[in-house]
Amino acid sequence: MQRILNNPDDIVDEMLKGFVKVHRDIVAVTDNPRVLKRVDMPADHVGVVTGGGSGHKPAFIGYIGKNLCDAVAVGEICTSPSAIAFLDAFRAADQGKGVACLYGNYSGDNMNVKMAVKMAAKEGIEVRTVVANDDAASAPKDQAGKRRGVAGEVLMWKAGGAKAAQGASLNEVIVAAQKAIDNTRSIGIGLTPCTLPAVGHPNFEIKPETMEVGIGHHGEPGIEICPLEKAEGIAHRMTGIVLPDYPLAAGDEVVVLVSGLGATPVMELYVLYDEIEKIISKKGISVYRSYVGNYFTSLEMMGATLTVMKLDGELKELMDMPCYSVGLKQA
């Protein structure tokens, strides 16, 4: 395993120290070393919190910043943050207006967030939640509550953070974030596995010249393993799952986010995006805004995710709001 690290068991804590030193204009430490917060958190607004396991940079700490998240709880690699970390993130973000906790649908996160919400209530901090479930491949549509949260979380944080910045109430922030994720579908395709530093070898396999359609960010099995295709074929497979799942139709306006999984060159992501937009445009769907880059990764996995959000007037306004974080900067 050729990696830049000291003791693999310390990689998350050492990564956080470096992250804060580099981005001290955006993020600050708290009394809990597994919780970071904004340095310029405005007073008198609804706090926005998220959290999750490490290994998905820039998620989750990369979305702390202006008009995005106010505090983030950090877990070990591919492991939920503790309930205490979520509670301390709520404390860090609370400005007396309540806290919106916007996180992904994973069993550990669900359990620890619920415990933290109860503990926060005893301290007089009102916390309400939205659970992202945008991964269309992870469960049938009629079992959407079982679907995982993946890169669509970025758009959920964008909507929720922007709504909070407008001075909205806790209920209004929750409603906007829920609509954002309800309008969003994602799909991932993996080309290679990833390696947990403490393990030293991949914990799953993707054979050469094949790709796994619908793979999760933690190597959760996808829905199909097939021969590796050209970018055009990959784009057809992705859009063929995401677009009909909502379903999106001619006349719709959408945000499109293509994220690398960690090891795919950005130039290849642009090749994929070009093919995706061709398909979307032929269906009469308009791309209002697009993002291409490494927004929600899985260590050094090769591959990409496609996320599509259907817009309405409110979501357009929220997507257009400027923001400033490590993971997303928008003027």
Question: What would you note in describing this structure?
Answer:
By secondary structure, the chain is an alpha/beta fold. The protein has 2 domains: 173 residues, Dihydroxyacetone kinase, domain 1 (Rossmann fold), CATH 3.40.50; 137 residues, Hypothetical Protein Tm841, Chain: A,domain 3, CATH 3.30.1180.20. Helices cover 32% and strands 24% of the residues. It has 8 helices and 15 strands. Strands 1-2-5-3-6-7 form a 6-stranded mixed beta sheet, sandwiched between helices. Strands 10-9-8-13-11-12 form a 6-stranded mixed beta sheet. A 3-stranded antiparallel beta sheet has the order 4-14-15, with helices on one face. Helix 2 crosses helix 3, helix 4 packs antiparallel against helix 5 and helix 6 packs across helix 7. The N and C termini lie far apart (40 Å). The mean pLDDT is 97. It is an enzyme of class 2 (transferase). It comes from Leadbettera azotonutricia (strain ATCC BAA-888 / DSM 13862 / ZAS-9) (Treponema azotonutricium). This is PTS-dependent dihydroxyacetone kinase, dihydroxyacetone-bindingsubunit DhaK.
